[in-house]
Amino acid sequence: MKEALILGIETSCDETAAAVVAGGRQVKSNIIASQVDIHRKFGGVVPEIASRKHLELINLVVEEALQAAGCTLADLACLAVTQGPGLVGALLVGVNTAKTLAYATGKPLVAVNHVLAHVAANYLVHDVEFPAVCLVVSGGHTSLLYLAARGEAELLASTRDDAAGEAFDKIARVLGLGYPGGPAIELAAREGDAHAFAFPKAFSGQDDVLAFSFSGLKSAVINTVHNIIQKGQKLPVADVAASFQQAVVDILVEKTCLAARSKGTKTVLLAGGVAANLLLRERLAAALAAEGRSLLFPPLSLCTDNAAMVAAAGWDNYRRGQFAGLDLNADPALDMMRH
Fold first, then answer.
1. How far is residue 304's CA from residue 195's CA, in Å, rounded to a whole number?
2. What is the topology classification, in CATH, of domain 128-297?
3. For 103, phi and psi rounded to 5 degrees?
């Protein structure tokens, strides 16, 4: 069980990925075929194009992952696949591939929740002390989780509207910075003044103090940009980017620290694509350190969608005997607590 080899498959959005992980910790291979260049011309992911590209690449990526790990399907203990949430067409490619391989080999199959897979990316590089709080922040998700133990998660709060990464993409598009928005905003912000614009920071009322909201901030930035353009003034792109990024980070840091205090945890994890943001890492680490808490996060290669994190999360289900049947179906709106 400890060194069980698990093949993870990830196709929830625009990354076709497969990986082999031993014992839920040791990455033997981690292959990712990115579609960023394909979707960049559209300013975002086009679901139909993503699904078709997954179909073209999935078998090649799985084969490469096995070869890089020096193993065959016969050596595997289990197959793990992202069931959701995500784009339904994209998810179906991965789910059907995993079911086919499970049927052909007789290997057990486990379904993985994409959000919890992001959490598990930390387990590939850190010995996490529990209990812990985890901030998962990406293009589709912004959530706070309480982790009693590995593989045991309780949802504390999530976004009421846009995810932080989604807001980054939309503002980057408005500023003409291209796709993906997160890295583009971060790069532009380096040359800007984060105090140039006082954008609103949404902090919910006493009934749900941990919940996130980014739609008001996004609208404020868009209105500011439109007003500047309508006045015929030159748009200070770097200043807008820096001020927007600062506002997002302020919200994320405040809510995460509040969650850690409310749960009394000394350990905080950061996960998801936006976890790659350097300002977020630095600000959150400093704020937590001031309270005697520590911050852990994965390397950049494990922040964005990948299959190693799926295999790591799959190992948690595997060791508990939580297997899926061959009737497994993709669930684009999979609840975070179903795993």
1. 29
2. Nucleotidyltransferase; domain 5 (3.30.420)
3. -65, -40
| CA 319 – CA 48 distance, rounded (Å) | 35
Judge if the upstream peptide bond of residue 85 is cis by omega within 30 degrees of 0: yes
Structure tokens at 305: 């969608």
Sheet strands side by side (includes 267-271): 152-158, 142-149, 132-137, 267-271, 294-296
Q: b vs e for 15-31, b when ≥16 Cβ sit within 10 Å of the residue's Cβ?
A: bbbbbbbbebeebbbbb
> CATH for 5-120+303-319, among 3.40.50.2000, 3.10.150.10, 3.30.420.40, 1.10.1240.10?
3.30.420.40
DSSP string across 108-153: -EEEEEHHHHHHHGGGGT--PPSSEEEEEESSS-EEEEEEEETTEE
Mean pLDDT (whole number) for 5-25: 97
Q: What DSSP designation does 44 have?
A: S
Q: Residue 188: which of 213, 206, 208, 171 has the closest Cα?
A: 171
Q: Cβ distance 204 to 251 under 8 Å?
A: no
How far is the C-alpha of 268 from the C-alpha of 120, rounded, in Å?
13
Tens-digit pLDDT profile for residues 269-301: 999 999 999 999 999 999 999 999 999 999 999
167 CB-near residues (< 8 Å, 6+ apart): 214, 217, 218, 248
CB 109 within 8 A of CB 81: yes
**Which is nearest to 64 in space by CA: 35, 15, 31?**
31
| pTM: predicted TM-score of the whole model, two decimal places | 0.93
